[in-house]
Design goal:
The protein is of the alpha+beta class. The chain has 10 helices and 12 strands. Zinc ion binds next to loops.
């Protein structure tokens, strides 16, 4: 068993992935709604803090940054540190692939602080927003949405606006300036691991941005992306 400390400070004991997990990860339906990742995390987590028999609820209770951190470490203990990607250029006139190698041991983790709820005053309207962190339960609700969008992703973290539960209407009416300030604040207090990949196309220089976990080669090094 491999032991790591999650960004929230909880210790996790992981065992490497086997064929059972490979089957889960190649199931398109289960990948799409996030069930595959939840099941893989559950199968491979043998200890969470003092808990030696973690259940699905415990895996979903984890904050999203802890979950992604665990997934990155699980990839490392199962398949090694190096992820080789060939990123397609988003510029349709180019279409070249840029090869890059990411060493998972090098990417930075940010610990979560003690607090779980935050208050932020919107700079434009002066309204007070109370918000929390994303966790596995909320990720599951987001994955079930037909049209996930920025409003849904923000709303799911908001506890109250001026003491009232958040509504879609309140989020839609919020100015872009206030929404942008709130998003920045949410990012500022967040913990986790930075899996963003940001490179320039070798051929034309167009910026290519993606997330490691969105690339097939992250979990399947044998599959050319
Ligand atoms: Zn290009």
């Amino acid at each position: 068993m491999h032991t790591f400390t999650l960004p929230s400070g909880i210790e996790i004991g992981l065992v490497e992935m086997t064929g059972a997990e490979e089957d889960l990860l190649t199931n398109r339906r289960l990948m799409k709604n996030g069930e595959a990742i939840n099941q893989v995390l559950l199968n491979c987590t043998k200890r969470l803090g003092e808990n030696a028999e973690p259940k699905m609820k415990d895996v979903l209770d984890l904050l999203s940054g802890d979950r992604l951190f665990a997934l990155v470490r699980l990839r490392q203990v199962s398949l090694g540190d190096e992820v080789e990607l060939e990123l397609a250029c988003p510029n349709t006139g180019c279409g070249e692939r840029t090869p890059i190698t990411v060493n998972l041991g090098d990417i930075e983790a940010t610990p979560y602080g003690e607090e779980r709820e935050f208050e932020f005053t919107l700079p434009g309207s002066g309204r007070k927003v109370k918000f929390g962190y994303l966790d596995g339960h909320k990720e599951k609700r987001l994955a079930a949405l037909k049209e996930p969008n920025l409003t849904a992703a923000m709303m799911i973290r908001i506890v109250e606006i001026d003491g009232q539960p958040p509504s879609k209407k309140a989020l839609n009416e919020m100015t872009m300036g206030d929404r942008s300030a709130l998003r920045k604040e949410m990012l500022r207090v967040d913990g986790g691991i930075d899996t963003q990949v940001d490179v320039s196309c070798d051929a034309c220089g167009t910026r290519i941005r993606t997330r490691l976990e969105a690339e097939p080669a992250f979990l399947f090094p044998s599959v050319a992306s």
